[in-house]
Design brief:
Alpha-D-Glucose-1,6-Bisphosphate, Chain A, domain 4; 7 strands; single chain
């Protein structure tokens, strides 16, 4: 079962430069994405993101920045887990009142869930993420 991609668009009340930093820099990723991050922001550089769940267990996700064109584009390929690597792409463009972010996100295969359910879960996850980012950026302003 192959994965597919969703293309989603969101607007944020900040400059493209600020949003690019939020998506790529370790100290910025810890404000919204993970508990700890180390990010070497250059093509071929590594991102290591760490979370601690409510039970105190730590889990880590590692990836490689494949393309970076500040402040307009970033492509990250996460290391393969359970035989399937996934890739996130972020296009960032200035617009009135801030910037527009286009996200290309994988919808990974799952033997027990139909494609539309998996797509809806991915969409809802990104919608929650961007709502939190919007709130964070409005507080900063």
């Amino acid at each position: 079962m192959a994965s597919s991609n969703l293309v989603l668009r969101f607007e944020l009340p900040a400059s493209a430069e600020r949003v690019f930093d939020l998506f790529t820099r370790g100290e910025q990723l810890t404000t919204w994405f993970c508990d700890q991050a180390d990010s070497d922001v250059q093509p071929g550089g590594r991102l290591v993101a760490t979370w601690q769940d409510e039970d105190g267990e730590t889990w880590v996700r590692r990836g490689t920045w494949v393309e970076l064109e500040a402040p307009g584009f970033a492509r990250l390929v996460w290391d393969a887990e359970e035989g399937s690597a996934d890739e996130w792409q972020f296009g960032i463009a200035a617009c009135e009142g801030g910037c527009r972010v286009t996200v290309v996100s994988p919808v990974l295969p799952h033997a027990n869930l139909p494609n539309d359910v998996r797509q809806d879960a991915v969409r809802q996850g990104w919608e929650r993420t961007f709502a939190a980012l919007d709130q964070l950026l409005r507080i900063e302003a």
